[in-house]
Amino acid sequence: MNPLRLTTIGNSTGVVLPKELLAKLRVAKGDVLYAVETPNGVELTPYNPEFAYQMDAAEEIMRENRDVLKKLAE
């Protein structure tokens, strides 16, 4: 992979991501990326890890309480 260069964008510092990297991330202009700290460094991802954690918890609750939820839906 080619190194990415930091550049001035207005009063901030930013990085320009090449088209190939955007395609690998499956993102486009206007999309949101999350910077997640991992044991190997910082990972850029289009997926919100907090939302994924909450969805996993919700799915587990729904599995455990399937009968109760079914009764409530009736």
Q: Could you characterize the architecture of this molecule?
A:
This protein is an alpha+beta fold. The chain has helices at 19-25, 49-64, 66-73, and strands spanning 6-9, 12-15, 34-38, 41-45. The longest helix is centred in the C-terminal third of the chain and has 16 residues, at 49-64. The mean pLDDT is 85.
H/I helix tally: 3
Distance between the termini: 55 Å
Helix residue percentage: 40-55%
Average of per-residue pLDDT values: 85
Spans of 5+ residues with little confidence (pLDDT < 50)? none
Pairing-aware structural class of the strands and helices?
alpha+beta
Radius of gyration: 19 Å
> Based on DSSP secondary structure assignment, what is the total number of beta strands?
4
Q: N-to-C SSE series?
A: EEHEEHH
Shape: elongated
- Give the strand order of the largest sheet, numbering strands 1, 2, ... along the chain: 1-2
Q: How much of the residues is beta strand, in percent? A: 15-25%
Topology:
Blueprint: E1 6-9, E2 12-15, H1 19-25, E3 34-38, E4 41-45, H2 49-64, H3 66-73
Task: Summarize this structure as a short list of keywords or feature phrases.
74 residues; alpha+beta; two-stranded antiparallel ribbon; two-stranded antiparallel sheet; 4 strands; 42% helix
Explain briefly what this protein structure is:
By secondary structure, the protein is of the alpha+beta class.
